[in-house]
Amino acid sequence: MYNPLAVCDGGDLDCGSGLLLIIKKAMDPLSGGDVLEIRSRERTVADDLPAWCRMVDHQFLGSEPGENTTRYFVKKGSTHKELQQELEAAKGYQWSVRVQGDRDLSAKIHSRNHTFVVGQPADFSPKVNAPSAIDYLLGSLAGCLTVGFKAQASKRNIEIDHTEVTLKAGLENVLFHMELEDAGSPRIKEIKGTFYVSSPGDEEELEKLWKNTLERSPIYQTLKQSVKIDIQFSIVY
User: Rounded CA gap, 108 and 115, in Å?
Assistant: First the structure.
């Protein structure tokens, strides 16, 4: 009905988490008046995509249901923001946080519209008032890998039923951090764990997806420069 000249698949991504960059990259080679088909399983795209089209002078033509997805059709306008400018802006983006020390041995972190509390690094109790900085570091690594893996699977239309990550880490000498000894280092010695995934997808494709997730993970690639990381990839049936 709309005669699209090109197609792009955003999987489960929404407009705020990378879908627009995928659309812009697919739209850039097209001429004014050409139609792009966008496939997405994210329900918020139905509201956000027409609004974005109005902002950048593209014409939203409509949508129709497809197999396990929705197909959106956008006609490229004669004037639009340059893709390269958008990509350069994305490259130059900087994350920022503001941290306030509380009265007790904790700190309050303000990040965009979220606030969370960080407790003592060396607290060995099973129950704590707030996660430690090391807890957050491990959680950040596990979260980056989990969301990255699912996002890449979504873009490739690989079905993922469930993922779970377990990580453990120890310090070279926690007593040095606590000023109970004067020799050693407080650095993290090693991070070990397992990334479990349940999926009907092909094992070889899942292995490739995992390797690509590691290669493109900002947290993993940063930490591995100074810490030994050993995370096993396990497919569970």
Answer: 7
